[in-house]
């Protein structure tokens, strides 16, 4: 009897987090679309198109919160995409690990900087 590795008893290899990451990218994409819609409605219904108007909008706690959540979603979305690029196209393990660590450090720095910007308004 030949084992052709087909069906429910097949040998699954790999990291095993494909579906979770696929779903996370869809959820974070929806978050970014909703945030963009809120931002667009706020812009189109506003009358004060000056720096003070924008600063006033971002000074509200609820707007800071949804902005921060959306930015964290963006950074997670970017991490999944860039990590997949590194895993698919960089075959040297040491270089791939270095690129992944550099990506994580860059995204964490961007997250810290975005929180600093949001809460300084």
TrEMBL record:
Name its cellular compartments: Cell inner membrane
Note the InterPro entries from the entry. SQR/QFR_C/D, Succ_DH_anchor, SuccDH_FuR_B_TM-su
GO terms of molecular function: electron transfer activity; heme binding; metal ion binding
The answer to keyword Iron applying to this record is yes
Q: What is its main location?
A: membrane
Q: Provide the Gene Ontology terms for cellular component.
A: plasma membrane
Q: Where does heme bind?
A: 77
- Return any one Pfam family short name: Sdh_cyt
The alphabetized UniProt keywords are: Cell inner membrane, Cell membrane, Electron transport, Heme, Iron, Membrane, Metal-binding, Transmembrane, Transmembrane helix, Transport, Tricarboxylic acid cycle
The record's remark on the cofactor is:
The heme is bound between the two transmembrane subunits.
Report the record's Gene Ontology biological process terms. cytochrome complex assembly; tricarboxylic acid cycle
UniProt membrane topology term: Multi-pass membrane protein
Highest rank taxon of the organism: Bacteria
Where a ubiquinone is bound, by residue?
Answer: 89
This protein's pathway reads:
Carbohydrate metabolism; tricarboxylic acid cycle
Q: Which cofactor does it need?
A: heme
Q: Where are the transmembrane segments?
A: 27-45, 65-82, 94-119
Q: Function of this protein?
A: Membrane-anchoring subunit of succinate dehydrogenase (SDH).
Protein name, UniProt field = Succinate dehydrogenase hydrophobic membrane anchor subunit
What organism is this sequence from?
Rugamonas aquatica
Give the source lineage, highest ranks first: Bacteria, Pseudomonadati, Pseudomonadota, Betaproteobacteria, Burkholderiales
């Amino acid at each position: 009897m030949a084992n052709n590795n087909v069906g429910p008893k097949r040998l699954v290899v790999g990291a095993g987090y494909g579906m979770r990451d696929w779903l996370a990218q869809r959820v974070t994409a929806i978050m970014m679309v909703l945030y963009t819609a809120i931002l667009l409605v706020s812009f189109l219904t506003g009358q004060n198109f000056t720096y003070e108007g924008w600063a006033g909008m971002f000074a509200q706690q609820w707007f800071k919160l949804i902005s921060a959540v959306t930015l964290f979603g963006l950074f997670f979305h970017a991490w999944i995409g860039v990590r997949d690029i590194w895993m698919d196209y960089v075959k040297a393990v040491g270089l791939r690990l270095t690129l992944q660590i550099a990506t994580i450090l860059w995204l964490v720095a961007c997250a810290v900087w975005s929180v600093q910007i949001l809460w300084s308004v």
